[in-house]
Specification:
- By secondary structure, the protein is of the alpha/beta class.
- Helices cover 34% and strands 23% of the residues.
- The protein has a 7-stranded mixed beta sheet with strand order 1-3-4-2-5-6-7, sandwiched between helices.
- Strand 6 (130-136), helix 5 (148-157) and strand 7 form a beta-alpha-beta unit.
- The termini are far apart.
- The model is unreliable at 44-53, 199-218 and 223-231 (pLDDT under 50).
- InterPro entries: P-loop_NTPase (IPR027417), Rab_GTPases_membrane_traffic (IPR050209), Small_GTP-bd (IPR005225), Small_GTPase (IPR001806).
- Belongs to the small GTPase superfamily. Rab family.
- GO terms for molecular function: GTP binding; GTPase activity.
Length: 231
Amino acid sequence: SRRALSLRNPVMPRSDYQFKCVLIGDSGVGKTSLIRTFATGGSPLSAPSAGGVDFATRQLELKGKTVEAQMWDTAGMERHRAVTAGFYRGAVGAFVVFDLTSHASFGHCERWLRELRAHRAEGEPHLPLVMMLLGTKADLRRRRAVVAQDAKEFAQRHRLLYAECSSSDASEVNQAFERVLAEVFRRVRKSIEAGQCNPDRPAPVLINTVLLTPAQQARDEGRAQAAGGCC
């Protein structure tokens, strides 16, 4: 069954911001393990993930502000190429994840990136979007199949941040996630200061915005389709 993971500090104030980030990539590259590690606040996993996690939330402090980060997992949808537009809706961060021991998973990053950008262009091109190419299983050095320079050149060509990590090393996972969140925060604050985003009328990245769970979004999309999509 699907579920959410959450790590909230009871002494933290209500969040000033909510940032939704999505993890995309082939099945088996370690997306679920990454968000489980993130949700535990830095405790490495002692056993492989059981899967079925839709998203994880965690509160962080950035520049004196409380940020609630939501990391969304495809939860197996990618096996059937069934990732919907609702999965990408409202995202301000994206991790294109591949397995450093699988050259095929790296080769498929181009397709995942095209899908991400297509949904963004159709839906919310005005929102900031920070993207990272993230290689997993960095601890399996002898089985490595993807040359670091090739991955870095791909990231540079597509204007992505780049990092490598292993879910068994929580510090690497946290560094990658926090790097993206810090850049999202910087861009959002810049937009507010430039008057492009009105804090009195919250955008999807600001607090008071309702962020739907994957199951809720699927239900809403089903209702829209049943209604025929007319207005």
